[in-house]
Write a structure and sequence with these properties.
66% helix, two-stranded antiparallel ribbon, 1% strand, 2 strands, mainly alpha, 48 helices
């Protein structure tokens, strides 16, 4: 009758007679009035609202605004028009009052409108499609807030006593579910990358929570929408539900069929249809949780894995023959997602009110199915494992939601109960269960979100848990493997060292199983420290290094081999000195040489490692014992440093860039010029020094340039033995400092001297006319290696040892540079009867003949040198005087020339003929 009257009196429909813009203004004014009204007053107006408004034309009262809204929606529903004019204000209101207690007006209005079937269909359909029609972030955010409120009406509807949403809940859910793909799109596009981790935006959080409540709604039974889920405790005796079985038997089919009958007929497959969307949602939630919620992330990993397995296992059944299996999969997904969905919410203020009930429920579930499984019930064997995994996943999701003081409070109250239940799970053979348990224990022990940082605040609860975990190292089983990482991480951040001490005791025990488990802990500890930015404390790491070196002689082959791999990962300052002692000792039962080489190879680009090695060898050479390594080597051992140096070539071949090592090596030698160990070490790598010859020579030049010339008075007093003790020490230090660069040059191969174009080696000395200008080599201003060598060899004031070594090294200089210069200097020295310079010149020529052979002999200046030598031999002399010694040097030089000719006579026919003519003339 009412609809008939409306058709007969169209003038009552004011929006038909008024312009469209005026209608919009009017409905806008009505919505403002309704949404700003107090919730109780609005509810009261709805409850006493009369349908007789035929004579009302103003919107001055709340009742009149309600009447106008009702008429507007009814007319729009009949005409198939959109309801954006009323929905957008509701959405905006929901967004504005999202976290306020005063934002319930849209829910009251929707409850009222939903009581009319025509209005419900119009409003619900428009609400469902507005999020796809309007590409607006604010509309989307408010929409998610409003829809979540509709789906969670139970938490706010009791005080208003309206049943519109409750009665239309399933129908509304069906209408809204097609929006799930749009919500998922918002979720997946809403991530923000920060420090290589994905973080959600406010909109993506709202969309994810909205998607969760929609899918949770699909799991609710139609006759129990207002009831809370029952708790599971250890006293229940109902048969377990199989959460993921590898096969389907008849008993399970009947149970699944019976249970699934309570599901609403039209919705039983709807959640399954969105399985792929659930997988995508969990993937996004997992990415968001990795950075700050590790336990929750572990639960999400397992939920994702379970969903994917469920899809693979049941996804292929589509025909009627698999109808029972289809019902089973629907029940399986629905029963688990009911809990998972509730635990995955990102924002849920009501969650803290029920966490204790849920925690008791999940712990009881784990304990119940553990006991049932261990009793050996064959029929529940598979289901027992999978159901324990379900409850453990729920426990991870639950505990992972809390951080800071809230998490500490839960651990303080439930720590013992959680530990008791979870320790038994470590005996399980399922890796997923073990991973979940280890993750929870890690959170309990380490409290990763604690504001105190990475350091560990030791408490009685932590110590008790760790003590229980240590006892699991007595067996070689899955439990031991599971706790290895936990104990290692605890040791890495514990400050008291008690746990590490207990592990090292096991490492030194006579029980092979305990040693292997303890070794695994130490191995993980080393790898954790290698990946960590925290600096290692000296004391524990030196103790660990000493124990590992003892493990090199362990009777277990596996321990010995893994020790060789671990030692290079420890700071070399803790292991290298002890390994050097081990190699130098006479004990060959322990493979110290192999360990020593591996450490060097692992650190082949670190100069500080070579410095440690040289210091250790120097201490051994001086007879100093290293106290840190003394515990590893027996007293009275015979030490042989050459054993270490003989191993050095094996390390050479692994060095990629010698330039990074040359500088620090030479700096160390320059700083310790009297250290013979460094010289011996460099002599073993002389060939590789040539790879960075320019760098070596450049540093030699810098060192020699920085050295002061010897003071004449100081040199004279030292030679006359009238210097003081301080002068003597200063002279000795100066001697070593001047010898040091020469010793480095001496270690370079001859090929380094062959490049005449090398500025660092020869400078301008290869220019022949230049060399005749210098009567006194001390005035040569050329800053090259050859110039420095010549200066040291021919200088008037120089240490004898330095002069001899410099003269010897001059003999390596290319003949085209050396022989013209020596020829000139020898002639000047003969004229002035400078015996020291004559001896230096002769020594240089002799060395050149020995190392250069025919290249030196065939040089034209050899003939002139021969003639100068003849002159010197004619000088009168007496036995043992300086002239006599110089003449002996001349004879040696001539002998070397003749010997060089005799080695290849065909190459020296002209020279031999010339020598014969000279001899014949002398005889005549």
């Amino acid at each position: 009758m009412e609809r008939q009257e409306e058709r007969e009196h169209p003038q009552q429909l004011i929006w038909k007679s008024e312009p469209e813009s005026l209608v919009s203004v009017t409905i806008g004014r009505a919505m403002t009035t309704l949404l700003t009204a107090r919730p109780k007053k609005l509810h009261h107006s709805i409850s006493r609202l009369s349908s007789d408004f035929s004579n009302k034309t103003s919107l001055a009262s709340l009742d009149e605004s309600l009447w106008f809204l009702h008429k507007y929606v009814r007319d729009a529903a009949r005409r198939g028009e959109t309801l954006d004019e009323i929905l957008v204000p509701m959405i905006e209101h929901s967004m504005k009052y999202k976290d306020s207690k005063n934002g319930g007006q849209p829910m009251i209005l929707l409850n009222w409108l939903f009581q009319d079937e025509l209005l419900f269909q119009a409003v619900a359909m428009n609400l469902a499609n507005i999020i796809t029609r309007k590409d607006d972030r604010y509309i989307a955010f408010g929409w998610c807030t409003l829809v979540r409120g509709l789906m969670e009406y139970e938490s706010i509807m009791d005080q208003y006593l309206v049943n519109g949403i409750k009665e239309k809940y399933n129908a509304l859910l069906k209408i809204l579910c097609p929006s799930i793909p749009r919500l998922l799109c918002i979720v997946r596009k809403g991530s923000i990358l920060q420090d290589k981790f994905e973080l959600p935006s406010r909109l993506s959080v709202a969309a994810a929570d909205c998607l969760l409540v929609l899918t949770e709604g699909l799991t609710k039974k139609p006759d129990m929408l207002s009831n809370k889920p029952k708790s599971l405790n250890s006293h229940e005796t109902s048969a377990p539900v199989c959460l993921l079985a590898s096969s389907i038997d008849k008993k399970k089919m009947k149970a699944a069929q019976k249970s699934s009958e309570v599901l609403n007929t039209g919705m039983e497959h709807l959640l399954w249809d969105y399985l792929q969307d659930l997988i995508y949602l969990v993937q996004s939630l997992l990415a968001w949780s990795r950075k700050s919620r590790p336990v929750h992330a572990k639960g999400l990993e397992q939920v994702l894995k379970w969903l994917q397995e469920l899809q693979v296992h049941y996804g292929g059944f589509q025909d009627e023959a698999g109808s029972q299996i289809l019902k089973t999969r629907v029940l399986l997904l629905s029963s688990c997602w009911k809990h998972y969905g509730m635990l995955l919410h990102l924002e849920d203020k009501k969650f803290t009110k029920q966490y204790k009930e849920l925690l008791d429920q999940y712990l009881s579930g784990i304990q119940y199915y553990t006991n049932n499984y261990t009793e050996g019930h064959a029929e529940s064997k598979d289901g027992g494992i999978e159901t324990r995994k379900f409850f453990l996943n729920c426990l991870c999701l639950l505990l992972g939601r809390f951080d800071g003081k809230k998490f500490e409070g839960i651990v303080s109250e439930y720590g013992k109960q959680i530990s008791h239940v979870l320790l038994s799970q470590l005996r399980c053979t399922d890796e997923d269960i073990i991973d979940g348990v280890v993750c929870i224990f890690k959170a309990i022990i380490f409290k990763p979100n604690n504001s105190s940082g990475s350091s560990l605040n030791d408490t009685n609860e932590m110590d008790a848990v760790v003590s229980l975990l240590l006892h699991l190292l007595d067996e070689r089983d899955a439990a031991a493997r599971a706790v290895v990482m936990l104990i290692a991480e605890y040791c890495s951040i514990s400050t008291d060292g008690h746990c590490l001490e207990e592990v090292l005791k096991l490492l030194a025990s006579g029980n092979a199983i305990q040693r292997r488990n303890a070794f695994d802990v130490v191995s993980q500890l080393i790898r954790i420290s290698t990946d960590s930015s925290h600096k290692a404390h000296h004391s524990p790491w030196q103790v660990i290094a000493n124990h590992l070196i003892v493990c090199l002689g362990d009777e277990e082959t596996e321990i010995r081999e893994q020790t060789l791999n671990l030692l290079p990962l420890i700071d070399p300052s803790f292991v290298l000195p002890a390994l050097v002692h081990l190699v130098c000792s006479s004990d060959e039962k322990i493979p110290g040489g192999e360990a020593f080489i591996r450490v060097l190879k692992h650190h082949n680009q670190k100069p500080e490692v070579i410095s440690i090695l040289l210091d250790t060898l120097s201490n051994l050479g001086q007879g100093l014992a290293n106290a840190e390594a003394g515990a590893c080597i027996g007293k009275g051992s015979n030490l042989d440093c050459d054993r270490v140096l003989r191993l050095i070539p094996e390390w050479f071949i692994t060095v990629q860039d010698w330039k990074t090592l040359i500088g620090p090596l030479m700096d160390k030698m320059f700083s310790e010029p009297s250290n013979a160990t460094i010289v011996r070490f460099l002599s073993h790598i002389n060939e590789h020094l040539a790879e960075a010859a320019d760098e070596v020579l450049y540093r030699v030049i810098l060192q020699m340039k920085g050295q002061k010339e010897i003071d004449e008075d100081f040199f004279t007093r030292c030679e006359m033995s009238i210097c003081t003790s301080d002068d003597s020490m200063r002279m000795q230090q100066s001697l070593f400092e001047r010898l040091c660069p020469l010793l480095i040059i001496r270690m370079l191969p001859l090929g380094v001297f062959n490049d005449l174009k090398s500025s660092v080696m020869y400078g301008q000395l290869h220019n022949l006319p230049v060399m005749h200008e210098y009567r006194d080599v001390s005035i040569i201003d050329d800053k090259s290696v050859a110039a420095f060598l010549v200066n040291r060899a021919f200088s008037k004031f120089e240490f004898e040892d330095v002069r001899k070594l410099a003269a010897e090294l001059c003999g390596r200089i290319h003949p085209q540079v050396l022989l013209p210069l020596v020829c000139s200097q020898l002639g000047h020295a003969a004229d002035s009867r400078d015996i020291l310079k004559i001896k230096a010149c002769l020594f240089s020529v002799c060395t050149s003949l020995v190392v250069r052979g025919k290249d030196s002999l065939l040089h034209p200046f050899i003939d002139e040198i021969w003639r100068t030598i003849e002159v010197i031999l004619l000088w009168p002399s007496s036995d043992e005087d300086k002239v006599s010694k110089a003449q002996h040097g001349c004879i040696d030089c001539l002998a070397l020339i003749i010997c060089t000719e005799l080695q290849a006579p065909e190459s020296f026919k002209d020279c031999t003929s010339w020598r014969s003519d000279i001899i014949e003339n002398k005889v005549k």
